[in-house]
Amino acid sequence: AQSVTQLGSHVSVSEGALVLLRCNYSSSVPPYLFWYVQYPNQGLQLLLKYTTGATLVKGINGFEAEFKKSETSFHLTKPSAHMSDAAEYFCAVSSYMFSGGYNKLIFGAGTRLAVHP
Amino acid sequence: DTEVTQTPKHLVMGMTNKKSLKCEQHMGHRAMYWYKQKAKKPPELMFVYSYEKLSINESVPSRFSPECPNSSLLNLHLHALQPEDSALYLCASSKGQVTSGANVLTFGAGSRLTVL
């Protein structure tokens, strides 16, 4: 079975500081990993995804994540936080369900990022 | 068109009302999803349609009734809801026709439901 753990339900940083949001996964097969962002009263927006190949994945809005198989981690980083980055961030692992013809997303509990001046 | 459109954005209903949430996508995706999201929680899967057929019902109460009239539309019919059903309802779609875990789910902005 697959699972995702996000360490830290709340992270607070100063504007201009490094953002680090932690995600660890459990999977018996090579994982497909995603980071989604959710701004207040909005849906989920894809930040980036890891499938295969390059372990450092670049996403939108200056975010990137590194897949580390040895540590079963997929942490999200951004060198310099902006006020507009304040949001809820979800890490997820995906698998294709052949019996149903759809993708099953297993989400972490989420991390709320606050950015203060 | 790379969007999933949900209407209405906000809905307030009484426990005896009948209402519907609508979702539309024109990306050619063949899998469509309904999720329920309570405050400060991740989305919870409710239903999945693949090629307009119901694939998954995650033990959702019968007061929620999904419908997929065609490959671009997904509805969620609501009847006799309870106050605890108040939540953000998210629609999503993906390339169900591509058998890969790398498929991206594209989410709509959600419908905020309040049950009085």
Label the structural class of chain B.
mainly beta
The outline of chain A comes out as globular
* Stretches with pLDDT under 50, minimum 5 residues of chain B: none
The count of DSSP E runs of length 2 or more, i.e. the number of strands of chain A, is 11
Q: What does the largest sheet of chain B look like?
A: 7 strands, mixed
- Strand fraction of chain A equals over 45%
DSSP summary: helix tally of chain A: 0
Q: What gross morphology of chain B would you assign?
A: globular
Amino-to-carboxy terminus distance of chain A: 41 Å
The sequence of SSEs of chain A as H and E is EEEEEEEEEEE
How does the major sheet of chain A shape up? 6 strands, mixed
- Largest interface here, residues on each chain? A-B, 30 and 34 residues
- Radius of gyration of CA atoms of chain B, rounded to a whole number: 14 Å
Order of helices and strands of chain B: EEEEEEEEEEE
For the record, give the distance between the C-alpha atoms at the N and C termini of chain B, rounded to a whole number. 36 Å
What are the low-pLDDT stretches of chain A, counting only 5+ consecutive residues below 50? none
| Relative helix content of chain A | under 10%
Q: Structural class of the helix and strand makeup of chain A?
A: mainly beta
How would you describe what is shown here?
The complex is a heterodimer of chains A (117) and B (116). With 117 residues, chain A is an all-beta fold. Chain A has no helices and eleven strands. In chain A, a hairpin with a 4-residue loop joins β9 and β10. Chain B is mostly beta strands and 116 residues long. Chain B is built from no helices and eleven strands. In chain B, the strands form two sheets. In chain B, strands 2, 4, 5, 6, 9, 10 and 11 form a seven-stranded mixed β-sheet that branches. Chain B has a four-stranded antiparallel β-sheet with strand order 1-3-8-7, with no helix packed on it. Chain B starts with a strand and ends with a strand. At the A-B interface, β4, β5, β9 and β10 of A face β5, β9 and β10 of B.
